[in-house]
Amino acid sequence: MDSRQKEIDSLKDYKYGFSTDIENTKAPKGLNEDVIKFISNIKKEPQWMLDFRLKAFERFKQLKEPDWQKPKYPKIDYQDLYYYSAPKSMKDKPKSLDDLDPKLLETYKKLGIPLQEQARLNGIAVDAVFDSVSVATTFKEELTKQGIIFCSMSEAIQKHPELVKKYLGSVIPTTDHFFATLNSAVFTDGSFVYIPENVKCPMELSTYFRINASETGQFERTLIIADKGSYVSYLEGCTAPMRDENQLHAANVELIALDDAEIKYSTVQNWYPGDKDGKGGIYNFVTKRGLCKGINSKISWTQVETGSAITWKYPSCILKGDNSVGEFYSIAITNNHQKADTGTKMIHLGKNTKSKIISKGISAGKSDMMYRGLVDISSKADNSRNFTQCDSLLMGNKCGAHTIPYIKNKNLKSNIEHEATTSKISDEQLYYCNQRGLNQEEAVSLIVNGFCKEVLQQLPMEFAVEAQKLVGISLEGSVG
Amino acid sequence: MLSIENLKAKIDEKEILKGLNLDIKPGEVHAIMGPNGSGKSTLSNILSGKKGYEINGKVTFDGENLLELETEERAHKGIFLAFQYPMEIPGVNTNTFLKTSINAIKKARGEKELDAIEFLKLIKEKSAELKFDEKILNRQLNVGFSGGEKKKNEILQMSILNPKLSILDETDSGLDIDALRIVSEGVNSLRNKNNSFLIITHYQRLLDYIKPDFVHVLKNGQIIKSGDFELAKELEKVGYEDFN
Ligand SMILES: Nc1ncnc2c1ncn2[C@@H]1O[C@H](COP(=O)(O)OP(=O)(O)OP(=O)(O)O)[C@@H](O)[C@H]1O
Ligand SMILES: [Mg+2]
Fold it and tell me: Helix B147-161 to helix B177-190 angle, to the nearest 10 degrees?
């Protein structure tokens, strides 16, 4: 096969693998105080924000990179990365979508997110983050009418400092752990959401993350606050070009639900997974944590993780308010040489708190999958309950699946239930489907989607359909 | 339409079919009877394209070399196998499976796929014909179905797909008397001058309803005798042991 054909074939596999040729403003390479000041300065941040970053950086210098995770990776040279990269045209922020660089609009169109049409047709508000900056947020006015704030993090720092100051770092402290602390020092952009008291957000809010520039880390920061009695459903999607190098993505996502509020956070993660031989791909080392701060509050994480060379994340819930509820629904798929170490933490602090964990891991090719979960019921959390179900599906015999549930129940009145299964797609099942006219890929997709059903059902309609397709695509070529 | 010449099949060095010949013309119904382990399911599997056999001989379907086609391609060309043991597929809704199946076949044939409404209409019509409880179609495919329900589900799929060649592998085993009649009606209603059937059974009772054109006896990997419906009656009396 000549190299051009190869390129075409691989593009077919990962259709988001193109890159946009665009002029960038970059911070100087490397990680130091000057770079952090550069980022803060280019964003015209107030002093308190810079102080927040520098404090985190001081802490970061004392931290050691963790190595307890299952997927090992070559040492990352943190001085050899760019920490800020933004399209030049974003320097003077365009006022509306019409002023946006056509190349950017084109990029999002190619990704299946036509910002302009999306705005009109889908009724889903989108914040589009391109490398280190948010390039556009749609539906702003309509949301504003209800008092909902949906904007980029950079804008929130300027316009809503009181909210940012109060909540940023309140769930993931700047001192938390290596990657979270790094993020606190160098985060560039991300989305900010505030839903006022008793407002049910009338549409899905969504952020689309795109890594474009090479040798650039993406460190985004998302903060969602649902005030008393409010509701919001938020979606996150991501892609990146195909590159031979590994690119680091270390985001922090903080959710805060006050009394009677509910946040539903869904992720469809399709970062570039690397090629068939395991070259390139995104390191997705993300910290996601939700705080059920108020009574009767609820936070629900749903994730469909199909991309990245390495996925390493545990979206978690701290159930502080009495009667609060935490949920984690996860589909993680690894193929070829992909690795994932993912799961959740449910920390029960309040009384009558409930959590539910449904994890579906699918491994194919030579990939390796680890579910790691912690359920921690504190001595004060009377009458609390957890239900965990972890199912693994193996395809072929060169892949691996592991389940490590950590369980700490310090309350006799509370109760933890754990179920786990491991299964394989049998040749007989495939034969049955083939006999009914489905080809191998359609058969695998059908069976795997059946396996994941409980999780797919949690996604908003439009995304459930996308996710189903993605599940099929990411397993293509995984059975003979 | 189907022609099998000197078909030999081995699996794990074990010889199962040892030179089998069979010719099925459009519109014909053939029954195959034979003792356990004689190779009946093996024959159905080879015709429908299950992998893992070492095959010799010649099989053509509508003039094409069948053995070169993928399993799903055979399905697209109109070969259907009602399985002796239908597979359970957890999490997959039976309706979804049926719809995916019929649309995969339509797509391969370049026909227009059914939308949700057309599909439901078809399902309603066919389940009514077969007195099949539609509720079961909202359950996971074959999961927790009773033996008879699984078999009836196969026949429902057959009648929806309207295949050119339907192979029924012991579909009558484990059916109650009413279900047996339903299955037979399913077959009879699809019967026309183009559709053919290969019906594997151990019992004359099914054949009483279906009235096959030919009955064959498969023993030791070969068809040792062929005849008409009378042959089935004779078998029932004599048994396979002494039948030569
Ligand atoms: N994978 C296999 N490995 C070894 N032997 C096999 C395999 N599959 C089938 N056989 C053997 O081949 C022979 C024929 O099996 P087959 O299932 O075709 O019989 P059958 O005629 O359908 O029997 P029954 O009436 O019990 O359904 C049997 O002896 C069986 O044990
Ligand atoms: Mg059999």
Answer: 10
State whether the beta carbon of B13 lies less than 6 angstroms from ligand 1.
no
Give me the residue from A431, A442, A454 closest to B104, CB to CB.
A442
Q: How many angstroms separate the CA atoms of B28 and B193, rounded?
A: 8
Nearest-CA distance from B105 to chain A in Å? 5
Q: How far is the CA of B36 from the centre of ligand 1 (A)?
A: 8
Give the pLDDT band of residue A416 (cuts 50, 70, 90): very high
Sign of CA dihedral A10, A15, A19, A20: positive
CA of B84 to the centre of ligand 2 (A): 6
> How far does CA B236 lie from the centroid of its chain?
22
pLDDT in tens, A2-52: 444 454 444 446 666 666 666 667 777 888 988 899 889 888 999 999 999
Residues of A whose CB is below 8 A from B49: 434-435
Residues of B in Cβ contact (< 8 Å) with A451 = 90-91
Q: Comparing C-alpha atoms, which of A303, A307, A311 is closest to residue A340?
A: A311
Nearest Cα to A186, choosing from A162, A217, A225?
A217
Percent of chain B residues topping a pLDDT of 70: 99
**In testing the pocket of ligand 1, which one of B36, B43, B54 has its CB within 8 Å of the most ligand atoms?**
B36
Structure tokens given for B136 = 């079961």
Give the gap in angstroms from C-alpha B100 to the nearest C-alpha of chain A: 8
Q: Where are the domains of chain A?
A: 3-474
Measured CA to CA in angstroms, residue A89 lies from A41, A220, A476 at distances of: 17, 20, 38
- Distance between first and last Cα of chain A: 20
User: Measured between CA atoms, how close is B65 to chain A, in angstroms?
Assistant: 17
Q: Does B72 touch chain A (CB under 8 A)?
A: yes
Q: How far apart (Å, rounded) are the C-alpha atoms in residues A457 and A203?
A: 18
Distance CA B80, CA B5 (A): 20
Question: In terms of Cα–Cα distance, which of A210, A211, A234 is closest to A223?
Answer: A234
Q: Please state the atom number of ligand 1 nearest to the C-alpha of residue B38.
A: 21
Q: Are A189 and A154 in contact (CB under 8 A)?
A: yes
| Residue-wise pLDDT tens digits, A52-108 | 999 999 999 998 988 888 888 888 888 888 888 776 666 655 556 666 666 666 766
CATH number of B1-87+164-244: 3.40.50.300
Q: Give yes or no for B84 touching A (CB within 8 A).
A: no
pTM of this structure: 0.82
pLDDT digits (tens, 9 = 90+) for B156-213: 999 999 999 999 999 988 888 888 988 898 899 999 999 999 999 988 888 999 999 9
Q: In this complex, do B104 and A438 lie within 8 Å of one another by their Cβ atoms?
A: yes
Closest CA to ligand 1's atom 24: B36
Which has the higher per-residue pLDDT, A479 or A153? A153
Return d(Cα A236, Cα A340) in angstroms, integer: 19
Residues carrying CATH 3.40.50.300, chain B: 1-87+164-244
Residue B187 CA, ligand 2 centroid: distance in Å: 19
